[in-house]
Every structure is written in structure tokens, then in C-alpha cells.
Amino acid sequence: MNILRPSVVSKPAANLKLIAVAIALAVSGVSQVAVAGSCTTSSAGSWTCSGAADPTTDSFIHISESGSLDLMMEDDFGLNVDTPEAAILGVVTPGSTGDLVITQGTGTITQNGTGTAVGGRNEGTGNVIMNIGAQGDTGTSGSLYADAQGGGDITLNVYKSVSSKGYNAISASTTANGNINIYAAEDIDAMNTNSNSSRGILATADEGNVDIKADGNVSGQAGGVYVTGGKDVNIDINGDVTSGVTSLATAGVGVANNTGSTSVNVQGDVTSHTDDGVMLYAHSGAGSQSVHVGGDVTATDGGGVAVTSTGSSEAINIAVDGNVTANDFTHGGIYAFQDNGSGDIHATVGGDVTTTDGRGFTLYADRGGDVTAHIDGDINAKTDGVYAVSNNKDSSAHGDVNVSVGGDINAGRHGIRATSNGSVNVQLGGNVTAGDALGISATSTDQGSEGGITIEAMGDVTSGTSSNANPEWTIYADNQGTADSYIRTQGDVTGGDVGIKANSGGDVVVDAHGLISGDSGVAVDMTGVSGASTLMLSDNWALSGQAQAGNGTNDVLQLAGNTDSALDLSTVGDTGNANGIIGFENLLKTDSATWTLSGEQTQGGFDSVTLQNGTTVLNNATLLATGSPVDIQQAATLQTNGSSTINGSVNNSGTMSFDSTQPGSTLTINGNYTGNNGLLHFNTVLDDDNSQTDKLVVQGDTAGTTNVAVTNAGGTGASTLNGIELIDVGGQSNGEFVQQGRIAAGAYDYSLVRGQGGNANNWYLSSQVADPIAPLTPTVPPSTPEPGTPLTPTVPPVITEPSTPPAQPEMILRPEGASYSANLAAANTLFAMDMHDRIGSSTYVDPTTGEHKRSKLWLRTEDGHGHFNDSSEQLRTHNDHTVVQLGADLFGGSFNGTDKWEAGLMAGYGTSESESHSKITGYSSKGEVSGYSVGGYATWFANANEQTGAYVDTWAQYGWFDNRVKGDGLQAEHYDSSGLTASIESGYTFKLEGEQHDYFVQPQAQLIYMGVTADNHTEHNGTRVRDAQDKNVQTRLGARASMRSKIKQGLEPFVEVNWLHNSNEFGSSLDGVTVSQDGARNIGEMSLGLSGKVGKNVEVWGKMTQQIGEDDYRDSAATVGLKVNF
Q1: How far apart are CA 310 and CA 291, in angstroms?
Q2: What are the C-alpha distances in Å from 264 to residues 240, 267, 289?
Q3: Whole-number Å distance between alpha carbons of 297 and 237
Q4: Strand pairing of 498-504 and 533-538?
Q5: What is the largest CA-CA distance in the chain?
Q6: CA torsion, points 131, 136, 139, 142, in degrees to nearest 10?
């Protein structure tokens, strides 16, 4: 160590106090050194500084060592200087190999001049290590300087905030392979300096790496962070970065001339007043270049983010989470240039991009790298909104260009310009408004199949808003290869001479969801397409100008979308129509929307018409299908409204229907018809032959199988003769039309039948029961008389009586009519009974006293099964029923001591299920009834003790019922019924005594009033259902015979024989046509049973009953009763 000072000589381990001024001398070629203050050394190269700063002004301290230097500033050490030199500077002299280590405690070094607060310079080959402050230090430091002139590494850890008044807040410089590592825990500020060229952090390297991390904000007059040279550069700032307004200012964050990869990550905002917000410029062959800004980028007089990589195969990645605001013609908002490099470019902005000069995005990959631009917000650009190019300088590269914008684009020139030697994909979520140029321009220069163009504009696209002359095109797609292209416009396309212009060697689809307008009279121009061109019309499409197909032979007009749309067929193929759709050989219907076609197509007949999905409506339209038949596929429907025509043939694998609002539409096919298990659905007023109906007219031949369904359009059913004509066939009628489902109206079922005689080609709906056709008797030709034989005189013809008019044809009745009738009969008869059904034998005899007593509680249950025909003999009904009744004797007495009377209350629950089957059609219907009843009864016996003589029994009850009728293929019908049933019964008991048995014979007569009626009901198909008659009175005349043992009480056998007469047969009226039970007017009935005691107070009885009526009316029932006496 060499030291010179005016009056004091330094010694090892001696305390030195600099009282006056430090003198800088040049000794042995060493830099100027001044030694002063409270810094002491205990051994060579080791210094410790302590003591507080002078309250006025201290002199600077410079310490120089050869070999190495370890300079420790204790926490109580401070300086207060005002000089252009460093306040404290440690130097390792040339030729040394040791490190320079400077450690500062929590003390404060104040530099009021333009010099550095703390500096370290290693002029040897060693490293520079500086630790300023400690973790959690809240103090402030002046500017810091570290220099490794011999290529050593620099490590700079700063735990204090740094505020510079002179030059850069933090400077680090090394040579050769030296690396730089800077960590700043607090804010770094070089804004209030005396130098216009001061930066927050400046790092200079040759071939070493640079790593800068700052947890606070970084700002500087001439730039926030700037790195020049070096290899790999990593900058990580957790706060904001700000660059000042001086004329020497550079980017907020700048990296220049490094040879490796670059990573810039700023979590806060980047603000630059006179240059780019972030600028990276890498040497030839450098690695990847990456920029991420977590906040906004604002450059009031520069570009937002600008990255240039020269000759690199690595990618450029730019991501800004916030907004970008810029003002620079060259760099604009986002600028990325792969200069003579093959690397990719990816640029993403989470907010808006606004430029007062220049483009929103400029992305250029010189040698075919992929280019991606994505922005979630809006673009407001002075010139182009997005300029993205993957150049084909290397013809073997096929880089793709992908542009996606979530918001609106407002551009002074082009909205989007995208070019690649691969594919181009443009996705736009908002509106595009272009100034004096195209709204969207996309070009793929690939000559093979690697390219292709996709444009999806979800908003409006408008061009030429700032020009007196309209641009040539609003959307331009130029695909120079054979790959496919797709253009979708969700909004309106306006402003250009041509709305959409497409060139391609491959297939092109233009999917229009809004208005496409061309001021020259051409809305869509695909004449430059040599592949198949498809015009897809969807949702809210409209054309202002013609749509022209390409030069291929397989061009398609596609009707698509999920919103109902319409097309005037008169515009198709008409070159003289201002909005004509010209040159498309094929018509294709897809998606779920209903398309209504109107007008008459007279030109441009289609080679093929394919209906794949959804519904296509011919509304008084004429469709010209001059090629293959119209193909109605399985998921498609062709509907006819009014009178429409297909000039061509039809293959039906799907559904053909007619206007459901009213019958009477007609479809005429001027060709052949083939059914491939498709469906024809007609709407018909189901009445007589002259009923209004939809109709299919086939001028040619029919073939294949077609299902036919018919919806009743308000008919009430009527008699038909020939039938209601549905299908008229002019040629060979080889097709089979098969009825699908029920065709029902009123009381009748209709059937689809082929006509007879001269109408055998046609198909009709008939409500008649078809009669078998008797074989014709061959006509015997007259014999030829023998020659010469005189002719027998002709006998005058016998005058015959006038022929009897043909009988009215029998109609096909629906089985549901029988179900309604069965339900009504069940509701009226479920709870009907005679006296013995309720009480068993007449009275109860006390086993001890022999006294006849009243019973208190009784219960009976009945299960039965029956069947009957209706009056037409077409319908056969089977039914089952179950009844449970419970009663109690509540009152009783005697008028004269010999007679007896009793009265009580009763309640019941019953169900009935029936199934009616049509012998004509095979259809069935099920009826169900379930209900409750409550009522009372009273009985009088003339001679109760002897159980002989006369009796009178009466009862009355009211019932409520739920009814259901469900026919094959029809909706279930639900309705209610309710009403009163009442009975009066009388008889006389004769007793015949024998030796061991007594015999009883009891003639009986009973009248039952059956007044349960059903509510008037209208079926889902419109049929009105009513009861066919008012009430019924059933008369029963018969006798009961029983036998009782004199020896002991036990079971008593009995037999009953009755004749039943019903004043009305239960029936229902369906639209005025009655369907009623047959054979129930007069019924014979026989019962066999037993009654007797099974315990002291319990008696049971049971019987089997069989009813037989006319026309195979049958009913069988089993009854069991129980009573408990008290």
C-alpha cells in the first residue's frame, strides 16, 4: 500500500483522522488515492471504517490496495461529502488477482455532489462484491458504482433505497467473461440528478451474463434499466420502471447488443417519455428474447415494446398484461422483428393498444417463423391495426400467422394485414374500422397445401372511412396454394367496392351471418377460386350486391345457421338481378334453422339439392333441381306451404310435411318420387271425401316405402266413399305408402288405402270398413250358330224391378268409444247390490234366547270379470272389477212388536279396468275407473222372528270417480264422473217345513236408479265426448231359495235366479256418434252360494254369480260377506 498525505504518515493498526483535506496523488501508476477519516486497517487489504459523518462536510475517502481489498463500513460509519469524486471508493490496483469486497452497514453516506456515494473498482482480474446495507434496512444510499476492469464478476446487493444526484443510481461494468449480478431490495431513483444521461440501473458487459433483480421501482432521467453487451441477460423488476424526459433518454428498459438470450420481466408499469417503453436489440445468433410487463406500457414519444433479434432461430415472446400506449411511426405499439432469423414471434396484450403514430402491432419473421398476435382489448392505431408477416425468404419454411383481437380495431389504414408462407388465421371478436385501406387482408404465398386462410370476424368490418375513394375490397383473402380457406362474417361487411374477395387454388367457404355489401354491385367475389367455392348463408345474412361463385364445377350454396332465415329463389342464377346468387351448382341445407324458400327459380338449376338437417319450407315456391333428385336425409324436413313445385325428382329418407296452421297445401313433383322409409305428414280435416287436406302430386313414378302420418285439422269424422285423396300419382305407382300411427276423428278411425279401379295409382284416407272384393265371373262368349240354321227369335228382355239402393257403408269405429262406455257402466254398477249382498241371511238369532237381533257391522267384497261387444260388433271389451263396501246398522226398532226395521250407513271403494279391441284395425284402448261412494240404507221385515212374509229394502249412495282412457298411439284422456244410485227392493218369504230342514222361497223385485254421469270432455285431438243417454233404471225380477237345518245352525245353501232389464244401454257419444254396450238390455242371472255362522257373533256368506246377455254379453262375479253382531 502506498500512502501520501500532507502531515500524517500512516502506520499499520493506527487510527487515522483526516482533519483537513485529502490529497490525491499518482503513485506507481496507481489511480489517485486519498486516505482519511476513521478508517483503519488491521492487516494488508483489510479496512474497517467507523464513526459518524461530520455535521458539515467530510472529505472523500479513497482506499487503494494491491492484491485484494476488504472494506467494511460499520453501522455507525457515515460520510457527508460534496465533491465530484466518489464519497468512498475502494480500488484494487492492476496486476492483482484478488477480489474487492465492500460492505456497508446501516450508516448513511451522503453525496451532495455529482460523484458516486460508494464505488468499487478492481483493476486486476478479481471480482467486485458490494453489499450495501442489510436485509430490512430502511436507509437511503447515494449512487453506487462497481467496475471489474480485468474481467472479474460483479455482485452487487443493495438493501437500501438508492437516490442519485449525480449520475446513474447503480452502475456495473465488467469485461471479457465477467458476469454481473445486481439485487436491489428497495426503490432505485436517478430522476433528480444533475446529469441528463443518468439511469436507474446501468450494466455493461462483454461476454458474461447479466442478472438484474429489483424488488422496488426503478427510474432514471435517461432510462430505468439499461444493459449493453453481455451474453444472456435477465431483468426482473417487481415494481414500476420510469424513464425521464431528457434529450439523452433511452427506453424505460433497454437491452442492446447482447449475444445470448434475453428475459425482461416487469411486474408493474413501464413509462418512457422520449423513447420506447421496452427495447431489446440482440446481436446476430442471439437466443430467445422475452418481455413480460405486468402493468401498462406508456411511451409518450416512442414505441411501446420493441424487440429485434438478428439471425436467431429462437423465439421472440412479448406479453403485456395491461394497456400499451405509444407514439412512434417505426415501432408503434408492439414491434418484433426476426431480422434474417427463423425464430417464431409471439405477442400478447391483455388490455388496449393505442398509437398516435405507427401501427398497433408490427410483427415480422424474416425466415418463416410462426407469428402470433393476441390482444384482449381494443386497437386504436394511427396506421395499421396489425401488420403480421411470416416472410418466405427461406422458401422451405412455412410459418403460420395467427392474429386474434378480442375488442374493436380502429385503424387509420388497414385494420389487419397478415401474410405468410404457411397458413393465416385471423380471429376478431369486435368491430374493425379501417381508414383508407382494407378492413382485413390475408395472404398465403405457399404454392402447395401448407397454407390456407381462416378469417372469423365476429363484429362489423368497415373500410374506406377516411378516404374519398373506396378501397377495392373490404375483406381480401388471397390463398396462392391448394389448401382450404374459410371466411366467416358475423356482422356487416361494408365500405369496399367488393365486400369479400377470395382467390384460391383450393376450396373456399364464405360463411355470411350479416350484411355483405359491395359498392360496385358485387358483394362476394369468388371468381378467383379454382377449387370448390361455398357460400354459406347463416342467421341474419343479407346481400347488397351479387354473390359470384368460383370457376369450379362443384360450387355450393349452403343454407345454414340456427336462426330462421329466408331466400328468394328468383335471385338464384339470375345475372340480371342486383342481388343475384350466381354460378352455384349445388344447394345444401345444414344445421337446425328453418329456411323458408319463396319465389320461382327459372335459372341456375341445381345439379344436386341435399337437405341434411333442420326444416326447409317451400312457401309458394318453385325449386329447379335439374340434376340428381332432391335428397331429403334422415334428420331433415321439407315442408310445403301453399302451392309449391319441385321441377325434378325427390328421394325421401327424412320427413315431408305441410303447413301445420291450415290444411290445403299442395306439393307438385315434376319428376319421380322414391321413399327410403321416410315420412309424409299431412294435415287433413277428417270428414268425408270432400274434406280439405294437404296433397302430394307426383307427375312421374313412385317407388320405395314411405310412412304416412296424418294430423286431424278439426274434423269430427264422417262417412267416406272413395276416401280423402292425399297422394296423386301420374306415372307408375310402385311405391308403398304405409300408415304410421292412429288417424282418428270423432268416433272413427281412418285408414290409408290405395284407390280402386281408375284411382288405383292414388292413395286415400277412408273411414269405411273394407269389404272383400268378390272375384269376377268370367263372361261366356256367345256361340256361333250353325250355317243354315234359322235364327231363334229374340225373346224380349224381362223387365226387372228397380235395384235396391246400396247400403250405407260401415264406418270404422275407434275402440276408445267402447272404453268410455265401459267406464260409464262400471261407475254406475260397481256399488249396486241387493239386500242379501249386504245382510247375508235375514236376521241374527241369539243362540241362548232364540231372539232375533240386528247385526251391527258388515263388510262385503266382490271381484268380477266380464266382456261385451259394442252395437256395431266391431269392438270387443273385456273388463275386471273389484269392490269393497263397509256398513253399520245404527238405528232400528219395531212398529207392532212383530215387525222389525233397521237402518245404517255405508261407504265403498271400487275399481274397474277394461280393454277394448277393434276387430277391424287391431287397435286397442284401455279404460280405468276408480272411486268412492257413501250412502245409507233401511230395511223392514213384516215378521222378523219367523223370517217369513213381506220385506222392503232401500238404499241410496253417491259416488265420485276418476276416469282414464288411453288408446294406442293417442294421448291419455282424464276426466271425472259422479252421481247418485238408489234402489228399492221388495219380496215375500214363504217357509216350507220339513222333518229336518226348513225351506224358504223368496220372490223378489228391485228397481235401481243409476244416475252417475261423466263430465263432458274434449280429447286432445278435439273429439268431444258426452254420455249417450240420460241415466238408467235397472229392473230385477227373480227368486231366492234356501234351506236351513232344524237340528243345528250351520251353513245354508241358496240359489238365486233373476231377470235384469236396463232401460238404457250404457254408451258414449264421440262427436255425435254413439258407441254403446250391446247385449245388456236383457240379462239372465244365476247365483249359487252359502251363508252361515262361523262363530258366536260372526256370520259369513258368499256366492258365485253368472250373467248372460245377448251378443255374447257375459259377466262373472264372486262375492264374500262378513258381519259381526253385538
Answers
A1: 16
A2: 13, 10, 8
A3: 14
A4: unpaired
A5: 186
A6: 30
- Does CATH number 3.30.70.1290 belong to domain 818-1125? no
Nearest 5°: phi and psi at 838?
-95, -40
Asked if 898 and 945 count as a contact pair (C-beta separation under 8 A), the reply is: yes
- From residue 455, alpha-carbon distances to 156, 459, 475, 477, 580 in Å are 52, 12, 9, 8, 24
> Distance (Å, rounded) from C-alpha 661 to C-alpha 598?
18
Q: What is the mean pLDDT of residues 253-265?
A: 94
What cell numbers appear for 227 in the block? 444493459
DSSP notation for 74-133: -TT--EEE-SSS-SEEEEE-TT--S-EEEEE-S--EEE-SSS-SEEEEE-SSS-EEEEES
Bridge-partner residues for 884, per DSSP?
861, 909
End-to-end Cα separation, the chain, in angstroms:
137
Residue type, 439: G
In order, the DSSP letters of 586-642 are EEEE-SS-EEEEESB--SS-BSEEEE-SEEEEEES-EEEB-SSPEEE-TTEEEEEES
Give the number of other Cβ atoms within 10 Å of residue 1020's Cβ.
9
Q: Is the pLDDT of residue 783 over 50?
A: no
Spatial contact of 865 and 880, defined as CB atoms under 8 Å apart? yes
Cα 1082 to Cα 453: distance, rounded to the nearest angstrom: 88
Instruction: Pull the grid cell for residue 729.
Output: 300419382
Cα-flanking dihedrals φ and ψ of residue 884, to 5°? -130, 125
pLDDT per position as a tens digit, 656-693: 999 989 999 999 999 999 999 999 999 999 999 999 99
Which amino acid makes up residue 38? S
Residue ranges of E strands in 175-258: 180-184, 188-190, 199-205, 210-214, 218-220, 223-229, 233-237, 241-243, 253-258
Contacts (Cβ under 8 Å, ≥6 apart) of 1088: 1053, 1054, 1055, 1103, 1104
Tell me the C-alpha distance between 765 and 808, whole Å: 18
Neighbours of 1098 (CB within 10 A): 12
Beta carbons of 553 and 583 less than 8 angstroms apart: no
Enumerate the domain spans of the chain. Answer: 634-766, 818-1125
Integer Cα distance of 334 and 865 in angstroms? 91
Query: For residue 502, is pLDDT > 70?
Result: yes
**For range 266-288, the mean pLDDT:** 88
- Give residue 697's identity as a one-letter amino acid code: V
Summarize pLDDT for 906-915 with one digit per residue, the tens. Answer: 999 999 999 9
Mean residue pLDDT across the chain: 89
Supply angle C-alpha 586, 590, 593, rounded to 5: 125
Compute φ and ψ for 883, nearest 5 degrees: -135, 140
Quick one: pLDDT band at residue 848, thresholds 50, 70, 90? low
The model's pLDDT over 858-867, given as tens digits with 9 standing for 90+, comes to 999 999 999 9
Beta bridge pairs of residue 764: 725, 753
CA nearest neighbour of 116 among 61, 156, 69, 66: 61
Looking at 621-721, which runs of residues are DSSP E strands? 622-624, 630-632, 636-641, 643-647, 650-652, 655-658, 666-669, 673-684, 695-698, 702-712
Q: Is the pTM of the predicted complex or chain greater than 0.70?
A: yes
- Say how far apart CA 494 and CA 1065 lie, in whole Å: 78
> What span, in angstroms and rounded, lies between the C-alpha atoms of 236 and 185?
12
**Over residues 874-890, mean pLDDT:** 97
Non-local CB neighbours of 329 within 8 Å, separated by 6+ positions: 357, 358, 382, 383
* 281 Cβ contact list (under 8 Å, min separation 6): 255, 256, 257, 307, 308
Q: What's the angle, vertex CA 1076, arms to CA 1072 and CA 1080, rounded to 5?
A: 155
Q: How far apart are CA 745 and CA 747, in angstroms?
A: 6
Q: Are 140 and 164 in contact (CB under 8 A)?
A: no
Q: Write out the three cell numbers for 17.
A: 483522522
